[in-house]
Amino acid sequence: MYCGLPASNTLIAQLFRYMSKKLLAVLMLLVCLLSVAVVQLMPSFQQKAGVTPPVTLANGSVDTSDIEKPCSNENPEWRPAQVIDEVEIEASPACEPDNPYDVAASVKGTNNISMATLMQTRLAQDAVVMGEDIDKDGDPDVIDIKLEVMELNGGSPDGNYLINTFDIAPGIQPGLWVFAPKSQGMGVKSFTTFAANPLLRAPSPTIRVEQGDKVTITLENTHYLPHTIHLHGVDHPWHNSKGDDNDGMEEHPVFPGQNHTYEIQPRHTGTMFYHCHVQTARHMLMGLSGMFVIEENKPNNWVQTFNVGAGQVRHRSVASKDTFTQEYDLFYQSLDKKLTKLVQEYGDPRLIANKMTRDYNMTESFENYFMLNGHSYPYTLRDSMIIAGANENIKLRIANAQRSSIAMHIHGHKATITAYDGVEQAPAQQITRDVFDVAPAQRIDLQLQTLDDGLHSYGQGLWMFHDHVLTGTSSDGMEPGGNMAILAYKSLIDEQGMPKMHEAALSELFNKKYYSKQQSLWDTGEFSHLLGEAGVFEISMVRLALFGLALGLLIGLLVVLILANKTKNKL
Fold first, then answer.
1. How many helices (H) and strands (E) does the chain have?
2. pTM for this one?
3. Cα distance between residue 502 and residue 377, in whole Å
4. Where is the Plastocyanin-like domain (predicted)?
């Protein structure tokens, strides 16, 4: 016995008494090293293979819980050509065609359609009001447009979830701001979902008016931050009729809950642009921009005021019908996930404003997501394909709202640039090529012919078109993604408007796990054992023995230190 301690503790007490600080430090270091070794060697029944794996076992069946149908096929009745309230609407074979009732309301005005038609839209009764035919040529010349600012994929104050959701690709929901036609009812699609109603989507709608129309655009700011509308390239006076700002500059913001009306009577036709000019770099990169088109003045020229979501124009102007067989609006945007995340992380407008203006450094920003008409591949296949037949003459209006330039490349075709920034080029200046450089905020018009002559077209097929700046075809680094789409010939799409011969790829890509980087691109199929996940392998018996030895030493050493410390305290 020693000092009343049991004999078994005497040795520990003597060890602790004579233990130097240096020895104690060595023992503590040994404890740390053994802890690291235990964590590193901790076994499981199976584990993922490393960079240079041994012979692996199959991963097992593929989890299909996150795989979507390539086409939802929600409204197949919207695809055929049809007439609604005397408005002729062209066929759209796309998987997700525009709502034809929205098209009819955009052409006739919400004040000139039946209540039955209006109720098939989400448009407010004063969203687009058509007035007097001043020049007596059979179409209205006074148009009143109302726009709101809406947030998509923003954080909800009521819980840890997003509201007014809009997926740009499978599982990808960045925060977005958009101009939207004034709408009626809820911001969500129904009482049973958080998904945004169809009018609330990216991009902001293409707006079409006729040359010489007296147009008022009223911004009803339903958002929590100030905004403006700048009509970039559109002929407009600097003051409106009240002597107020008409240029939408940052010095004259429209604050939350306020309205402001911009007045124009454009004299020059062409493809223009509109965007918010408050904290311009940030607000444009959040999505507040759209295409603005002024059509040539023609008799009986009822133009489609809103092309929601851009894409195919289903009711074309008289001038377009005279020259072209189809017309498409192609609107390119990019997003910085660090910026878009702010509206999901903070619920206080003061915090969002401060984080955006003072903490977020625009000069250090990145473009992580690249979109065509509000979607990234593969969702671009649902509503942004160009679907053509042989020997067509198609008009493409292209606008670049990205922070960076795009280099649009069309496989299998060469198109002709007919206009820059709304200015028609003389025939001698029109250039035919297959890559089209479009600077930020720039617009170009293209004439795309499907004549199979080896120049304009190489023949029928599923021809990709995309940004040839290589990042443009990625979504947060994952390829294929970004602004890729397809110029598809009608014989090569199925009854739902999806491309044939792509079934295997589509089953891989319409999967949330792929874009969240949880699944390999080639995770199924006959080559999955070569190109898919590396698989798993059985734990090594040597590793298991080393784990047991390290764990035993660690436990023993900890017991010795604990008992020695208790013994010291009793002395």
1. 14, 29
2. 0.84
3. 13
4. 202-297, 358-470
Would residue 9 count as lying in a domain? no
Residue 23 maps to a domain: yes
One domain for residues 202 and 135 = yes
154 and 208 co-located in one domain: yes
Residue 506: helix, strand or coil by DSSP?
helix
Query: What separation in angstroms does the CA of 26 have from each of 33, 89, 557?
Result: 10, 82, 12
* Residue 505 burial class via C-beta count within 10 angstroms: exposed 0-12, middle 13-18, buried 19 and up: middle
Task: Report the CATH number at residue 175.
Answer: 2.60.40.420
Full DSSP string of 551-565: HHHHHHHHHHHHHHH
Is 87 within a domain? no
Three-state SS at 155 = strand
Two structure tokens written together for 85: 């309230």
- Sign of the C-alpha dihedral computed for residues 221, 225, 226 and 232 taken in this order: negative
Same domain, 230 and 135: yes
**SS3 category, 287:** coil
Q: Tally the domains of the chain.
A: 2
Task: In whole angstroms, give the CA distance from residue 204 to residue 189.
Answer: 18
| Contact indicator for 262, 236 with CB cutoff of 8 Å | yes
Cα separation, 473 vs 303, in Å, equals 33
With a cut of 80, say whether residue 40 has pLDDT above it. no
Question: Coil, strand or helix: which one is 16?
Answer: helix
Query: With contact defined as beta carbons under 8 Å apart, do 297 and 212 qualify?
Result: yes
pLDDT digits (tens, 9 = 90+) for 203-255: 999 999 999 999 999 999 999 999 999 999 999 999 999 999 999 999 999 99
What amino acid is encoded at 175 in this protein? G
My answer on whether 459 and 559 are in the same domain is no
The whole-angstrom separation of Cα 190 and Cα 198 is 11
In this prediction, what percent of the chain has a pLDDT beyond 90? 74
Whether 472 and 547 share a structural domain: no
Q: Which amino acid is at 252?
A: H
Count the alpha carbons within 13 Å of 83 in the hemisphere toward its beta carbon: 3
Domain that residue 179 falls in = 123-497
Helix (H, G, I), strand (E, B) or coil at 338: helix
Same domain, residue pair 557 and 490? no
Residue 476 lies in a domain: yes
Q: Do 40 and 132 have their domain in common?
A: no
Phi/psi of residue 168, each to 5°?
-85, -20
**For residues 487 and 430, is the Cβ–Cβ distance under 8 A?**
no
Whether residues 483 and 558 fall in one domain: no
